[in-house]
Structures are given as structure tokens and as C-alpha cells.
Amino acid sequence: MKAVFIYNFAKFTRWPSETWTKNGTSLRICSIGNDELSQALVRLNGRKVRELPVTIEHREESNNLDNCHLLYLARSMQHLMLEINKSIRTKPVLTVSEITDFSKQGGMIELYRINSRIRFKINLQAAREAGLDLSSRLLKLAVDVKR
Q1: How far apart are CA 10 and CA 49, in angstroms?
Q2: Most CB atoms within 10 A, among 59, 70, 135, 137?
Q3: What is the per-residue DSSP string for 20-87?
Q4: What's the rounded Cα separation, in Å, for the pair 117 and 45?
């Protein structure tokens, strides 16, 4: 179910137009670290977002993440969260994680579960700093939006 949330986050995000000339013709969803959600992302491979095929890439290292369009950080990467967020802060990479306080620490979308329901928080300031435009429809669904 959470993989569907990530797919929808991509659908409701606008990247700068030059993103597609620099980084190819597929929407790259990268994951770093290992958890249940990073493994479930494989199900999105080949789907389309605005006519672009989705490509899933699992990364072992925290370098060269700026060629991803969406980056999922597994909980196992909490120790590198601040470093990763800082390294791609101004790059058009939508960052998503289930790490507690991810959105407070510079991440863009923080997924969490409450009363067996999946919810999310958005750090709109971080998204704007990276040149990303999040749909108002997405912002309305968020439990908390940091502006």
C-alpha cells in the first residue's frame, strides 16, 4: 500500500522542465537502505507517470543520488539522513521516508502509520528549495504541511 503512496506522490509532483532533458526519459525512483517498502517499490517498475515509464533503482551508496527523481530512504539509513538531505537539498529530487521526524530534518515527505492508517507530512519549504512543485491536491491530503 505504501508503494502506491509513493507512486501518487510522483504523480502529484512537478519537476522543473529541464529535469527531463538532463536526466533522461524515465522517472527514476531510487531507494537507499533496506526495508519492506524499499522492496515493495519494485512493483512500480514499468508503470507510467505523465507518459514517462517508472524505473526503480536500489542504491547501495549515498553518492550520485541527484540523478534520481524520487528518493526513498529506508529506516536503516537514519544515520545518513541529514547528510543525504543536505547533499541533494537544492536538486530536484523528491525525498520520502518513514524515518521519524524526517520532514523536520529537511526531508520532503514523511510517511507514518497512526491507528492502522497511513498518513504523511510534507515539508513544502524543502520541496520548493529543490525546485519542485507539489500539487494542491497532495497538500490537502497531508496531515501537516511545513511551509
Answers
A1: 7
A2: 70
A3: HHHS-SSEEEEEES-SHHHHHGGGGTT-EETTEEEEEEEESSSSSGGG-SEEEEPGGGGGGHHHHHHH
A4: 25
Over the chain (147 residues), what is each successive 10-residue block's mean pLDDT? Answer: 95 90 80 93 94 92 88 95 94 97 96 94 96 96 89
* Element counts in the chain: helices (H) and strands (E): 6, 10
Helix (H) or strand (E) holding 40: helix 36-40
CATH for 2-146 (3.40.50, 1.20.1740, 3.40.1710, 3.30.930): 3.40.50
| pLDDT tens, residue by residue, 88-111 | 999 999 999 999 999 999 999 999
**Chain center to CA of 76:** 16
Q: Which residue do the cell numbers 502509520 mark? A: 113
What pLDDT sits at residue 61?
82
CA distance 64 to 87: 10
Residue pair 52/21 in contact (Cβ under 8 Å)? The answer is: no
